[in-house]
Amino acid sequence: MSSQTLLSAEQLSRRFGLQTAVQSVSFSVVQGEVLGFLGPNGAGKSTTMKMLTGNLAPDSGKVIINGIDLLADPKAAKRHIGYLPENPPLYRELTVREFLTFCARLHGLSNKLIQPAVDNVIERCGLQTMQRRLIGQLSKGYQQRCGIAQAIIHQPDVVILDEPTSGLDPIQIQQIRQLIRDIAHQHSVILSTHILPEVEMLCDRVQIMHQGQLVFSDTLQALQSQRQHAALKVAFRSPPSVTALANLPGIINVETINTQQFRLHFSPEQDPTDTLLHTAVAENWQLTQLTPEQDSLEQLFTQLVSNETEGAAA
Amino acid sequence: MWLVARLECYRLFMSPLAWVLLALVQLLLAYLFLTHIDYFSQVQGQIAAIPGAPGVTELIVAPLLSNMAIVLLLVTPFITMRSFAEERRNESLPLLMTAPLSVAQIVIGKYLGLLGFFVLLLLLLMLMPLSMLLGSPIDIYQLAAGFIGLLLLLSSMIAIGIFMSSLTAQPVIAAVSSFCLLFLLWIIDWAGQSDSAGSNVFSWLSLISHFEPLLRGEMFSADIIYYLLVSTAFLLMTIRRLDSLRVAS
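^ inputs. structure came back:
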Protein backbone atom coordinates (compact mmCIF):
# COMPACT_ATOMS: atom_id res chain seq x y z
CA MET A 1 0.00 0.00 0.00
CA SER A 2 1.39 3.36 -0.93
CA SER A 3 1.45 5.68 2.03
CA GLN A 4 1.05 9.02 0.37
CA THR A 5 0.20 11.80 2.80
CA LEU A 6 -3.22 13.13 1.85
CA LEU A 7 -3.81 15.64 4.57
CA SER A 8 -1.44 17.29 6.93
CA ALA A 9 -2.00 19.95 9.53
CA GLU A 10 0.88 21.95 10.86
CA GLN A 11 0.82 23.85 14.12
CA LEU A 12 -2.87 24.67 13.96
CA SER A 13 -3.97 27.09 16.65
CA ARG A 14 -7.27 28.74 17.29
CA ARG A 15 -8.50 30.94 20.08
CA PHE A 16 -12.00 32.08 20.92
CA GLY A 17 -11.58 35.29 22.84
CA LEU A 18 -9.34 34.49 25.76
CA GLN A 19 -9.96 30.78 25.59
CA THR A 20 -7.60 28.67 23.57
CA ALA A 21 -9.63 26.03 21.76
CA VAL A 22 -6.83 24.39 19.82
CA GLN A 23 -3.15 24.85 20.45
CA SER A 24 -0.41 23.97 17.93
CA VAL A 25 -1.89 20.73 16.72
CA SER A 26 0.05 18.92 14.00
CA PHE A 27 -0.75 15.60 12.40
CA SER A 28 -1.09 13.91 9.04
CA VAL A 29 -3.23 11.27 7.40
CA VAL A 30 -1.94 8.86 4.80
CA GLN A 31 -3.92 7.17 2.07
CA GLY A 32 -6.39 4.50 3.14
CA GLU A 33 -6.07 5.23 6.83
CA VAL A 34 -8.77 5.74 9.43
CA LEU A 35 -7.69 8.29 11.96
CA GLY A 36 -9.69 8.61 15.14
CA PHE A 37 -9.92 11.84 17.06
CA LEU A 38 -10.73 11.03 20.61
CA GLY A 39 -11.40 13.43 23.40
CA PRO A 40 -13.93 14.54 25.96
CA ASN A 41 -16.48 17.17 25.03
CA GLY A 42 -14.90 20.55 24.50
CA ALA A 43 -11.45 19.15 23.80
CA GLY A 44 -11.22 20.97 20.48
CA LYS A 45 -12.10 18.13 18.13
CA SER A 46 -14.84 19.93 16.26
CA THR A 47 -12.82 23.14 16.08
CA THR A 48 -9.93 21.24 14.54
CA MET A 49 -12.24 19.63 12.01
CA LYS A 50 -13.78 22.95 11.09
CA MET A 51 -10.32 24.30 10.43
CA LEU A 52 -9.44 21.28 8.29
CA THR A 53 -12.49 21.89 6.10
CA GLY A 54 -12.13 25.64 5.76
CA ASN A 55 -15.20 26.46 7.82
CA LEU A 56 -13.09 28.23 10.39
CA ALA A 57 -9.92 30.16 9.76
CA PRO A 58 -7.05 29.15 12.05
CA ASP A 59 -5.20 31.86 13.95
CA SER A 60 -1.96 30.27 12.86
CA GLY A 61 -0.83 27.10 11.18
CA LYS A 62 -1.28 25.41 7.86
CA VAL A 63 -3.50 22.76 6.32
CA ILE A 64 -2.22 20.91 3.27
CA ILE A 65 -4.70 18.70 1.44
CA ASN A 66 -3.30 16.49 -1.27
CA GLY A 67 -0.41 18.90 -1.69
CA ILE A 68 -2.65 21.98 -1.92
CA ASP A 69 -2.60 24.64 0.77
CA LEU A 70 -6.16 25.08 2.01
CA LEU A 71 -5.65 28.70 3.02
CA ALA A 72 -3.89 29.73 -0.18
CA ASP A 73 -6.11 27.92 -2.67
CA PRO A 74 -9.31 26.95 -0.86
CA LYS A 75 -11.33 26.12 -3.97
CA ALA A 76 -8.87 23.56 -5.28
CA ALA A 77 -8.21 22.06 -1.86
CA LYS A 78 -11.88 21.69 -1.00
CA ARG A 79 -12.41 19.40 -3.98
CA HIS A 80 -10.53 16.71 -2.10
CA ILE A 81 -12.48 16.76 1.13
CA GLY A 82 -15.89 15.61 2.22
CA TYR A 83 -17.16 16.87 5.53
CA LEU A 84 -19.98 15.85 7.82
CA PRO A 85 -20.33 18.38 10.64
CA GLU A 86 -21.81 17.50 14.01
CA ASN A 87 -25.25 18.47 12.76
CA PRO A 88 -25.69 17.15 9.24
CA PRO A 89 -26.15 20.10 6.86
CA LEU A 90 -29.36 19.18 5.09
CA TYR A 91 -32.11 21.05 3.33
CA ARG A 92 -35.20 19.63 4.94
CA GLU A 93 -37.57 20.64 2.19
CA LEU A 94 -35.80 18.62 -0.49
CA THR A 95 -36.06 14.90 -1.15
CA VAL A 96 -33.01 12.74 -0.56
CA ARG A 97 -32.39 12.35 -4.27
CA GLU A 98 -32.82 16.04 -5.05
CA PHE A 99 -30.48 16.95 -2.24
CA LEU A 100 -27.77 14.53 -3.30
CA THR A 101 -28.07 15.61 -6.93
CA PHE A 102 -27.55 19.18 -5.80
CA CYS A 103 -24.53 18.18 -3.72
CA ALA A 104 -23.01 16.35 -6.68
CA ARG A 105 -23.42 19.48 -8.82
CA LEU A 106 -22.07 21.64 -6.02
CA HIS A 107 -18.88 19.63 -6.00
CA GLY A 108 -18.51 20.17 -9.71
CA LEU A 109 -19.37 16.72 -11.03
CA SER A 110 -20.13 16.80 -14.75
CA ASN A 111 -23.72 16.19 -15.82
CA LYS A 112 -22.93 12.73 -17.13
CA LEU A 113 -21.48 11.58 -13.82
CA ILE A 114 -24.15 13.00 -11.53
CA GLN A 115 -26.80 10.30 -11.81
CA PRO A 116 -24.37 7.36 -11.44
CA ALA A 117 -22.74 9.11 -8.48
CA VAL A 118 -26.09 9.71 -6.79
CA ASP A 119 -27.18 6.10 -7.40
CA ASN A 120 -23.87 4.91 -6.03
CA VAL A 121 -24.05 6.79 -2.73
CA ILE A 122 -27.72 6.01 -2.27
CA GLU A 123 -26.85 2.34 -2.53
CA ARG A 124 -23.75 2.57 -0.35
CA CYS A 125 -25.58 4.42 2.38
CA GLY A 126 -28.66 2.20 2.23
CA LEU A 127 -31.01 4.99 1.26
CA GLN A 128 -32.77 3.20 -1.63
CA THR A 129 -36.18 3.07 0.05
CA MET A 130 -35.91 6.67 1.23
CA GLN A 131 -34.73 8.40 -1.92
CA ARG A 132 -38.08 9.99 -2.73
CA ARG A 133 -38.85 11.07 0.83
CA LEU A 134 -38.38 14.56 2.15
CA ILE A 135 -35.28 14.85 4.30
CA GLY A 136 -37.25 16.64 7.01
CA GLN A 137 -39.40 13.55 7.49
CA LEU A 138 -36.55 11.08 7.89
CA SER A 139 -35.43 9.70 11.22
CA LYS A 140 -32.18 10.90 12.75
CA GLY A 141 -30.35 7.79 11.59
CA TYR A 142 -31.35 8.24 7.98
CA GLN A 143 -30.57 11.94 8.13
CA GLN A 144 -27.12 11.02 9.37
CA ARG A 145 -26.72 8.64 6.43
CA CYS A 146 -27.80 11.40 4.13
CA GLY A 147 -25.12 13.58 5.66
CA ILE A 148 -22.52 10.87 5.08
CA ALA A 149 -23.76 10.37 1.52
CA GLN A 150 -23.30 14.08 0.93
CA ALA A 151 -19.73 13.87 2.21
CA ILE A 152 -18.65 11.02 -0.07
CA ILE A 153 -20.60 11.78 -3.25
CA HIS A 154 -17.69 13.41 -5.05
CA GLN A 155 -15.25 10.63 -4.12
CA PRO A 156 -13.03 12.86 -2.01
CA ASP A 157 -9.60 11.68 -0.90
CA VAL A 158 -10.29 12.53 2.71
CA VAL A 159 -13.63 12.16 4.45
CA ILE A 160 -13.98 14.08 7.71
CA LEU A 161 -16.76 12.94 10.00
CA ASP A 162 -17.54 14.82 13.20
CA GLU A 163 -19.15 12.53 15.77
CA PRO A 164 -21.00 10.50 13.15
CA THR A 165 -22.73 8.28 15.70
CA SER A 166 -23.86 10.81 18.28
CA GLY A 167 -27.54 10.85 19.10
CA LEU A 168 -28.36 7.56 17.40
CA ASP A 169 -29.87 4.40 18.84
CA PRO A 170 -27.64 1.31 19.22
CA ILE A 171 -28.83 -0.35 16.01
CA GLN A 172 -28.31 2.80 14.01
CA ILE A 173 -24.86 3.15 15.55
CA GLN A 174 -24.02 -0.37 14.36
CA GLN A 175 -25.20 0.47 10.85
CA ILE A 176 -23.31 3.74 10.68
CA ARG A 177 -20.15 2.04 11.91
CA GLN A 178 -20.51 -0.59 9.22
CA LEU A 179 -20.96 2.20 6.69
CA ILE A 180 -17.82 3.97 7.90
CA ARG A 181 -15.88 0.74 7.62
CA ASP A 182 -17.05 0.43 4.01
CA ILE A 183 -16.08 4.01 3.27
CA ALA A 184 -12.62 3.36 4.67
CA HIS A 185 -11.94 0.92 1.84
CA GLN A 186 -11.96 3.74 -0.67
CA HIS A 187 -11.19 6.91 1.24
CA SER A 188 -9.03 8.12 4.06
CA VAL A 189 -11.25 8.90 7.00
CA ILE A 190 -10.83 11.23 9.94
CA LEU A 191 -13.51 10.77 12.52
CA SER A 192 -14.06 12.28 15.90
CA THR A 193 -15.78 10.68 18.83
CA HIS A 194 -15.82 10.60 22.59
CA ILE A 195 -16.54 6.89 22.68
CA LEU A 196 -13.45 4.74 23.18
CA PRO A 197 -14.82 1.42 21.87
CA GLU A 198 -15.80 3.15 18.65
CA VAL A 199 -12.21 4.08 18.02
CA GLU A 200 -11.12 0.54 18.84
CA MET A 201 -13.58 -0.83 16.30
CA LEU A 202 -12.92 1.54 13.45
CA CYS A 203 -9.57 3.23 13.55
CA ASP A 204 -6.04 2.39 12.51
CA ARG A 205 -4.55 5.27 14.36
CA VAL A 206 -5.69 7.29 17.34
CA GLN A 207 -5.12 10.86 18.37
CA ILE A 208 -6.29 11.99 21.73
CA MET A 209 -7.04 15.61 22.33
CA HIS A 210 -7.32 17.20 25.70
CA GLN A 211 -7.89 20.88 26.32
CA GLY A 212 -6.93 21.79 22.80
CA GLN A 213 -3.72 19.82 22.71
CA LEU A 214 -2.77 16.48 21.25
CA VAL A 215 -1.78 14.34 24.19
CA PHE A 216 -1.44 11.08 22.32
CA SER A 217 -0.95 10.12 18.72
CA ASP A 218 -0.09 6.58 17.77
CA THR A 219 -1.47 3.29 16.50
CA LEU A 220 -4.29 1.48 18.24
CA GLN A 221 -1.93 -1.18 19.62
CA ALA A 222 0.18 1.47 21.26
CA LEU A 223 -2.92 2.89 22.88
CA GLN A 224 -3.86 -0.46 24.32
CA SER A 225 -0.40 -1.01 25.76
CA GLN A 226 -0.60 2.45 27.30
CA ARG A 227 -3.39 1.34 29.51
CA GLN A 228 -1.18 0.13 32.30
CA HIS A 229 -3.55 -0.77 35.02
CA ALA A 230 -5.87 -3.62 34.36
CA ALA A 231 -8.53 -4.95 36.65
CA LEU A 232 -10.77 -7.96 37.08
CA LYS A 233 -14.23 -7.73 38.48
CA VAL A 234 -15.02 -10.92 40.34
CA ALA A 235 -17.91 -12.22 42.40
CA PHE A 236 -18.11 -15.30 44.63
CA ARG A 237 -21.02 -17.01 46.31
CA SER A 238 -18.89 -17.82 49.31
CA PRO A 239 -16.29 -15.09 49.20
CA PRO A 240 -12.85 -15.45 50.74
CA SER A 241 -11.26 -12.79 52.93
CA VAL A 242 -9.75 -9.76 51.27
CA THR A 243 -6.29 -10.77 52.43
CA ALA A 244 -6.64 -14.15 50.75
CA LEU A 245 -7.34 -12.39 47.47
CA ALA A 246 -4.62 -9.85 47.97
CA ASN A 247 -2.09 -12.63 48.59
CA LEU A 248 -2.62 -14.07 45.12
CA PRO A 249 0.42 -13.48 42.92
CA GLY A 250 0.25 -10.35 40.77
CA ILE A 251 -2.56 -8.64 42.63
CA ILE A 252 -1.71 -5.08 43.52
CA ASN A 253 -4.86 -3.96 45.19
CA VAL A 254 -8.26 -5.37 46.14
CA GLU A 255 -11.27 -3.12 46.09
CA THR A 256 -14.40 -4.35 47.84
CA ILE A 257 -17.55 -3.47 45.89
CA ASN A 258 -19.94 -5.33 48.19
CA THR A 259 -19.73 -8.48 50.34
CA GLN A 260 -19.57 -10.73 47.30
CA GLN A 261 -18.03 -8.54 44.60
CA PHE A 262 -14.45 -7.38 44.38
CA ARG A 263 -12.32 -5.49 41.93
CA LEU A 264 -8.81 -6.86 41.64
CA HIS A 265 -6.14 -4.55 40.24
CA PHE A 266 -3.07 -6.22 38.83
CA SER A 267 -0.04 -5.26 36.80
CA PRO A 268 -0.41 -6.16 33.13
CA GLU A 269 2.79 -8.25 33.03
CA GLN A 270 1.40 -10.72 35.55
CA ASP A 271 -2.12 -11.77 34.68
CA PRO A 272 -3.55 -13.56 37.76
CA THR A 273 -6.64 -14.96 36.01
CA ASP A 274 -5.37 -18.54 35.81
CA THR A 275 -4.14 -18.63 39.39
CA LEU A 276 -7.37 -17.07 40.56
CA LEU A 277 -9.45 -19.72 38.80
CA HIS A 278 -7.39 -22.60 40.20
CA THR A 279 -7.48 -21.20 43.70
CA ALA A 280 -11.19 -20.48 43.51
CA VAL A 281 -11.95 -24.06 42.48
CA ALA A 282 -9.56 -25.56 45.03
CA GLU A 283 -10.87 -23.45 47.89
CA ASN A 284 -14.51 -23.75 46.77
CA TRP A 285 -15.15 -19.99 46.67
CA GLN A 286 -17.89 -20.57 44.05
CA LEU A 287 -16.92 -18.07 41.42
CA THR A 288 -19.98 -16.50 39.77
CA GLN A 289 -18.49 -13.64 37.80
CA LEU A 290 -15.17 -12.91 36.18
CA THR A 291 -15.05 -9.82 34.03
CA PRO A 292 -11.86 -8.24 32.72
CA GLU A 293 -12.10 -4.48 33.10
CA GLN A 294 -10.21 -1.88 31.18
CA ASP A 295 -9.67 1.70 32.08
CA SER A 296 -12.50 4.01 31.25
CA LEU A 297 -11.84 6.81 28.88
CA GLU A 298 -11.67 9.30 31.71
CA GLN A 299 -9.00 7.29 33.49
CA LEU A 300 -7.09 6.97 30.25
CA PHE A 301 -7.21 10.72 29.77
CA THR A 302 -6.04 11.56 33.25
CA GLN A 303 -3.31 8.99 32.85
CA LEU A 304 -2.19 10.35 29.50
CA VAL A 305 -2.36 13.91 30.69
CA SER A 306 -0.36 13.12 33.82
CA ASN A 307 2.17 11.19 31.68
CA GLU A 308 2.45 14.25 29.51
CA THR A 309 3.17 16.59 32.41
CA GLU A 310 5.64 14.10 33.93
CA GLY A 311 7.39 13.85 30.57
CA ALA A 312 7.60 17.61 30.39
CA ALA A 313 9.00 17.79 33.92
CA ALA A 314 11.66 15.14 33.22
CA MET B 1 -22.89 30.31 -8.70
CA TRP B 2 -25.82 29.59 -10.98
CA LEU B 3 -26.29 26.39 -9.11
CA VAL B 4 -26.68 28.19 -5.80
CA ALA B 5 -29.08 30.60 -7.51
CA ARG B 6 -31.11 27.73 -8.90
CA LEU B 7 -31.23 25.96 -5.57
CA GLU B 8 -32.25 29.12 -3.73
CA CYS B 9 -35.11 29.74 -6.14
CA TYR B 10 -36.14 26.09 -6.12
CA ARG B 11 -36.14 25.93 -2.34
CA LEU B 12 -38.30 29.04 -2.22
CA PHE B 13 -40.93 27.33 -4.33
CA MET B 14 -40.72 24.25 -2.13
CA SER B 15 -41.91 26.33 0.79
CA PRO B 16 -45.50 27.48 1.05
CA LEU B 17 -44.31 30.99 1.94
CA ALA B 18 -43.37 31.80 -1.66
CA TRP B 19 -46.70 30.65 -3.06
CA VAL B 20 -48.71 32.42 -0.39
CA LEU B 21 -46.81 35.64 -0.97
CA LEU B 22 -47.23 35.39 -4.73
CA ALA B 23 -50.96 34.90 -4.34
CA LEU B 24 -51.55 37.55 -1.68
CA VAL B 25 -49.44 40.20 -3.38
CA GLN B 26 -51.32 39.55 -6.59
CA LEU B 27 -54.66 39.79 -4.80
CA LEU B 28 -53.79 43.00 -2.99
CA LEU B 29 -52.52 44.72 -6.10
CA ALA B 30 -55.43 43.50 -8.18
CA TYR B 31 -57.73 45.23 -5.71
CA LEU B 32 -55.70 48.45 -5.91
CA PHE B 33 -55.69 48.15 -9.68
CA LEU B 34 -59.46 48.01 -9.66
CA THR B 35 -59.78 51.07 -7.42
CA HIS B 36 -57.54 53.03 -9.76
CA ILE B 37 -59.64 51.99 -12.76
CA ASP B 38 -62.78 52.86 -10.88
CA TYR B 39 -61.47 56.31 -10.04
CA PHE B 40 -60.38 56.84 -13.61
CA SER B 41 -63.77 55.95 -15.03
CA GLN B 42 -65.35 58.45 -12.62
CA VAL B 43 -63.15 61.38 -13.61
CA GLN B 44 -62.86 60.37 -17.25
CA GLY B 45 -65.74 62.55 -18.39
CA GLN B 46 -64.45 65.65 -16.62
CA ILE B 47 -60.84 65.43 -17.77
CA ALA B 48 -61.72 64.60 -21.34
CA ALA B 49 -62.62 68.25 -21.82
CA ILE B 50 -59.29 69.58 -20.49
CA PRO B 51 -56.53 69.75 -23.09
CA GLY B 52 -53.25 68.16 -21.99
CA ALA B 53 -54.88 66.37 -19.10
CA PRO B 54 -53.18 63.23 -17.65
CA GLY B 55 -54.02 60.06 -19.53
CA VAL B 56 -54.65 56.46 -18.59
CA THR B 57 -50.98 55.71 -17.99
CA GLU B 58 -50.51 58.62 -15.59
CA LEU B 59 -53.71 57.97 -13.70
CA ILE B 60 -53.69 54.19 -13.47
CA VAL B 61 -50.31 52.69 -14.32
CA ALA B 62 -48.09 55.10 -12.40
CA PRO B 63 -50.02 54.94 -9.12
CA LEU B 64 -50.26 51.17 -9.46
CA LEU B 65 -46.50 50.81 -9.85
CA SER B 66 -46.03 53.11 -6.89
CA ASN B 67 -48.32 50.84 -4.85
CA MET B 68 -46.34 47.84 -6.01
CA ALA B 69 -43.17 49.43 -4.69
CA ILE B 70 -44.71 49.80 -1.24
CA VAL B 71 -46.12 46.26 -1.18
CA LEU B 72 -42.77 44.87 -2.29
CA LEU B 73 -41.07 46.84 0.47
CA LEU B 74 -43.27 45.01 2.92
CA VAL B 75 -42.74 41.62 1.31
CA THR B 76 -39.02 41.43 0.50
CA PRO B 77 -37.81 41.12 4.12
CA PHE B 78 -39.88 37.96 4.52
CA ILE B 79 -38.23 36.33 1.55
CA THR B 80 -34.69 37.55 2.12
CA MET B 81 -34.70 36.73 5.83
CA ARG B 82 -34.25 33.07 4.99
CA SER B 83 -31.16 33.39 2.85
CA PHE B 84 -28.41 33.21 5.46
CA ALA B 85 -30.12 33.39 8.84
CA GLU B 86 -31.98 30.16 8.24
CA GLU B 87 -28.90 28.39 6.92
CA ARG B 88 -27.03 29.41 10.01
CA ARG B 89 -29.82 28.33 12.31
CA ASN B 90 -30.13 24.94 10.61
CA GLU B 91 -26.35 24.75 10.50
CA SER B 92 -26.49 23.92 6.83
CA LEU B 93 -24.04 26.64 5.87
CA PRO B 94 -21.02 24.27 6.18
CA LEU B 95 -22.39 22.43 3.15
CA LEU B 96 -21.81 25.47 0.96
CA MET B 97 -18.66 26.50 2.79
CA THR B 98 -17.05 23.08 2.33
CA ALA B 99 -17.94 22.94 -1.34
CA PRO B 100 -15.39 24.28 -3.81
CA LEU B 101 -17.08 27.68 -4.01
CA SER B 102 -15.86 31.09 -2.99
CA VAL B 103 -17.89 33.13 -0.54
CA ALA B 104 -18.59 35.64 -3.30
CA GLN B 105 -20.11 32.89 -5.43
CA ILE B 106 -22.36 31.81 -2.59
CA VAL B 107 -23.57 35.34 -1.88
CA ILE B 108 -24.11 36.32 -5.51
CA GLY B 109 -25.75 32.96 -6.16
CA LYS B 110 -28.25 33.53 -3.39
CA TYR B 111 -28.85 37.07 -4.58
CA LEU B 112 -29.55 35.95 -8.14
CA GLY B 113 -31.83 33.19 -6.92
CA LEU B 114 -33.95 35.64 -4.93
CA LEU B 115 -33.87 38.15 -7.75
CA GLY B 116 -35.16 35.43 -10.06
CA PHE B 117 -38.11 34.85 -7.78
CA PHE B 118 -38.97 38.55 -7.64
CA VAL B 119 -38.60 39.01 -11.38
CA LEU B 120 -41.20 36.30 -11.77
CA LEU B 121 -43.45 38.06 -9.28
CA LEU B 122 -42.92 41.34 -11.09
CA LEU B 123 -43.73 39.83 -14.49
CA LEU B 124 -46.97 38.44 -13.09
CA LEU B 125 -47.83 41.87 -11.71
CA MET B 126 -47.03 43.52 -15.02
CA LEU B 127 -49.80 41.49 -16.62
CA MET B 128 -52.31 43.78 -14.91
CA PRO B 129 -51.31 47.07 -16.56
CA LEU B 130 -50.66 45.20 -19.81
CA SER B 131 -54.19 43.84 -19.75
CA MET B 132 -55.37 47.43 -20.24
CA LEU B 133 -54.07 47.19 -23.78
CA LEU B 134 -57.23 45.27 -24.54
CA GLY B 135 -59.34 48.37 -23.97
CA SER B 136 -57.14 51.38 -24.39
CA PRO B 137 -53.67 52.31 -25.61
CA ILE B 138 -51.16 52.95 -22.84
CA ASP B 139 -47.70 54.43 -22.83
CA ILE B 140 -45.61 51.27 -23.06
CA TYR B 141 -42.37 53.21 -22.62
CA GLN B 142 -43.48 54.78 -19.38
CA LEU B 143 -44.55 51.35 -18.16
CA ALA B 144 -41.17 49.92 -19.16
CA ALA B 145 -39.36 52.67 -17.28
CA GLY B 146 -41.48 51.93 -14.25
CA PHE B 147 -40.71 48.21 -14.60
CA ILE B 148 -36.99 48.88 -14.76
CA GLY B 149 -37.36 51.16 -11.74
CA LEU B 150 -39.13 48.45 -9.75
CA LEU B 151 -36.49 45.93 -10.78
CA LEU B 152 -33.66 48.18 -9.61
CA LEU B 153 -35.52 48.99 -6.42
CA LEU B 154 -36.02 45.27 -5.77
CA SER B 155 -32.40 44.53 -6.49
CA SER B 156 -31.34 47.01 -3.79
CA MET B 157 -33.94 45.75 -1.34
CA ILE B 158 -32.83 42.14 -1.83
CA ALA B 159 -29.18 43.07 -1.34
CA ILE B 160 -30.05 44.93 1.86
CA GLY B 161 -32.19 42.01 3.04
CA ILE B 162 -29.44 39.46 2.34
CA PHE B 163 -26.95 41.55 4.27
CA MET B 164 -29.28 41.85 7.26
CA SER B 165 -29.88 38.12 7.07
CA SER B 166 -26.15 37.42 7.25
CA LEU B 167 -25.89 39.42 10.46
CA THR B 168 -28.01 37.13 12.58
CA ALA B 169 -28.92 33.50 12.96
CA GLN B 170 -32.57 34.37 13.69
CA PRO B 171 -34.68 34.77 10.53
CA VAL B 172 -37.25 36.90 12.34
CA ILE B 173 -34.64 39.37 13.56
CA ALA B 174 -33.30 39.47 10.02
CA ALA B 175 -36.78 40.27 8.67
CA VAL B 176 -37.53 42.97 11.22
CA SER B 177 -34.14 44.65 10.92
CA SER B 178 -34.14 44.63 7.13
CA PHE B 179 -37.67 46.00 7.15
CA CYS B 180 -36.61 48.81 9.48
CA LEU B 181 -33.59 49.67 7.37
CA LEU B 182 -35.62 49.64 4.16
CA PHE B 183 -38.32 51.76 5.72
CA LEU B 184 -35.76 54.22 7.03
CA LEU B 185 -34.21 54.52 3.58
CA TRP B 186 -37.71 55.05 2.27
CA ILE B 187 -38.86 57.81 4.62
CA ILE B 188 -35.50 59.55 4.86
CA ASP B 189 -36.83 61.39 1.83
CA TRP B 190 -39.17 63.35 4.14
CA ALA B 191 -36.14 64.84 5.87
CA GLY B 192 -34.95 65.79 2.42
CA GLN B 193 -38.11 67.82 1.77
CA SER B 194 -37.13 70.51 4.27
CA ASP B 195 -35.15 73.52 3.12
CA SER B 196 -32.14 73.14 5.40
CA ALA B 197 -28.68 72.83 3.88
CA GLY B 198 -28.03 69.13 4.36
CA SER B 199 -31.47 68.02 3.27
CA ASN B 200 -30.38 67.20 -0.27
CA VAL B 201 -28.13 64.49 1.08
CA PHE B 202 -31.05 62.76 2.79
CA SER B 203 -33.15 63.07 -0.30
CA TRP B 204 -30.37 61.58 -2.37
CA LEU B 205 -30.03 58.64 0.04
CA SER B 206 -33.66 57.73 -0.16
CA LEU B 207 -34.75 54.69 -2.11
CA ILE B 208 -37.98 56.35 -3.16
CA SER B 209 -36.60 59.63 -4.48
CA HIS B 210 -34.71 57.75 -7.17
CA PHE B 211 -37.75 55.72 -8.07
CA GLU B 212 -40.14 58.60 -8.72
CA PRO B 213 -38.47 59.92 -11.90
CA LEU B 214 -38.51 56.41 -13.34
CA LEU B 215 -42.19 56.21 -12.57
CA ARG B 216 -42.75 59.32 -14.63
CA GLY B 217 -40.86 57.68 -17.43
CA GLU B 218 -37.67 59.68 -16.96
CA MET B 219 -34.51 57.57 -16.85
CA PHE B 220 -31.52 59.32 -15.31
CA SER B 221 -28.23 57.46 -15.18
CA ALA B 222 -27.70 58.87 -11.67
CA ASP B 223 -30.76 56.99 -10.40
CA ILE B 224 -29.76 53.76 -12.07
CA ILE B 225 -26.22 54.07 -10.73
CA TYR B 226 -27.62 54.75 -7.25
CA TYR B 227 -29.49 51.44 -7.22
CA LEU B 228 -26.56 49.51 -8.64
CA LEU B 229 -24.30 51.09 -6.04
CA VAL B 230 -26.61 50.16 -3.18
CA SER B 231 -26.92 46.57 -4.43
CA THR B 232 -23.18 46.14 -4.91
CA ALA B 233 -22.29 47.76 -1.61
CA PHE B 234 -24.59 45.54 0.42
CA LEU B 235 -23.53 42.39 -1.43
CA LEU B 236 -19.88 43.24 -0.79
CA MET B 237 -20.68 43.82 2.87
CA THR B 238 -22.37 40.41 3.00
CA ILE B 239 -19.30 38.76 1.51
CA ARG B 240 -17.11 40.50 4.07
CA ARG B 241 -19.46 39.50 6.83
CA LEU B 242 -19.47 35.81 5.87
CA ASP B 243 -15.70 35.86 5.55
CA SER B 244 -15.41 37.35 8.99
CA LEU B 245 -17.69 34.63 10.38
CA ARG B 246 -14.87 32.17 9.75
CA VAL B 247 -12.32 34.38 11.42
CA ALA B 248 -14.29 35.88 14.30
CA SER B 249 -14.31 34.27 17.68
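The mean pLDDT of chain A is 83. Residues 236 and 287 of chain A are 4 Å apart (CA to CA).
thumbs up if we can close this ticket
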